[in-house]
């Protein structure tokens, strides 16, 4: 008995050996349970076509590595499949869709609106802003924000679009005749335009130019993309141990520093009763001063009696109201279709009739946010900050990429550039006058070139959703199971040979109305579509037309490369790895 008692612990083993003895069966049981709980996912996934991956890890190794090679590999492997391609990234099922009929099902739905888990890496930066939020919060904020990008509001930005575009032209003089990366200029300009329009502050109120902010955003996107591509960096704990985490903190200081300052300065003006863009007020004052000066000079020259310029004593609020009223009486453009970046026939909440928008809602973005906060609990200070961060990011990086691709393509296709320039000369002649809203409607060929740029090089090349319900596709007898991530591969959709006869050829005539009419609405969705479409779509198109036409009225663009030399990288926003290298020559100089 005595012996038995002594041996008993040895027979049962030490606590650690018991642990190891139980570990294996526990793991096996857990694995069986895990597989069974995902049986539905595996069953339906097995029926989906896609490139063959490795056992267990699937295509994990395809998404690890430099950004440009990952993008190329994923596109290359998906391309041979006609409508849809499935890939396993470890345990994660990702399904790429690029048939317009399936894209319509996903994007037009009010059910499949939850963003994929990859968007969670944006959280420290954008919080629960419009891009990543979901449910009731997204719904109510979308309803609040969409009208602030209504055409009536946008028309009041035209002077600022013009003024900032001229500013870029002046800055570009430093690069005359040299090959340089135009993306830096486009980034800085798009940040400053956003500050002055949607945010309604003057760029003079900032210590530094938008350049530092734009560069911090670019670096931040690199970090987020690195997290997408590394299994280790995806883990929150491991991430905090890396240099990326420290750098993220530094970058967020710059990014949030600017947005905090913007809100503070706008709030201060708001509390003093000032509404509307402070930059707009400054610009109007400057124009008035110029008018007075010119009138005085004229008077001196000719001894002419001149009528006095408009009073400068009106309050900012009155002026902002005046601007808004003026814009309401300007020509009412067709609201749907090409001019605003989507297929004719597609409509979303930006296409509401003018009369459906209440008076108060005709405010620019940050004005409306502050007004709503003042009037009740529609939006809190934290939420305003999240939305400002979201609009600042979404509103600048996308248009910086779009305009840089446009200039690169103009540089490559001199014959097409000739036609754009001829159109602009037809509209403006020799005049240096700023563009009006009506002019932008007449830039038909430039518009087609812009659309073709967004087709071939969509700044947002992938739109990903996480399915909470199964999705039965239209293109074939396929069901994508709930739990999967569905990705609209815009870049493949836009180059679908069944839709575009020569998908890899830059041909602005793809957007001739007669060609458009025969195409599926969802074959062109650079701004997404449906309930989660881009709220900045019209803003982006109007701004890009003014910015790019101003550049091409002043410079001719050249490029030493062709599209086949582009090394595309999709670190959130589509870019050229080698930079957007172009050369400019002032127009009129031979
Ligand atoms: C060429 C320029 C632009 C392109 C190609 C573009 C593209 C897109 C796309 C594809 C989405 C959907 C993303 C997704 O579902 O994952 C989106 C969403 C969004 N965009 Fe844009 N965008 C552009 C410019 C702008 C501008 C100028 C603003 C604001 C001033 C803006 C604000 C937003 C916001 C807030 C969302 C989220 C909307 C929501 O989820 O309800 N974008 N954009």
Plain-language structure description:
This protein has 590 residues and is an alpha+beta fold. The chain has a domain at 98-290 and 362-461 and 480-586: Orthogonal Bundle (Cytochrome p450). 53% of the residues lie in helices and 8% in strands. The protein contains 24 helices and 11 strands. The strands form 4 sheets. A 4-stranded mixed β-sheet has the order 1-2-7-4. A 3-stranded antiparallel β-sheet has the order 3-11-8. A two-stranded antiparallel ribbon has the order 5-6. β5 and β6 (479-480) form a beta hairpin. α10 (182-196) packs antiparallel against α18 and α14 (243-271) packs across α18. It is globular and about 110 Å long. 43% of the residues are buried. The model is unreliable at 304-336 (pLDDT under 50). Residues 130-131, 142, 198, 390-391, 394-395, 398-399, 402, 459-460, 463, 526-528, 532, 534-536, 539-540 line the site of protoporphyrin IX containing FE. The site of protoporphyrin IX containing FE has 23 residues, from α18 and α24.
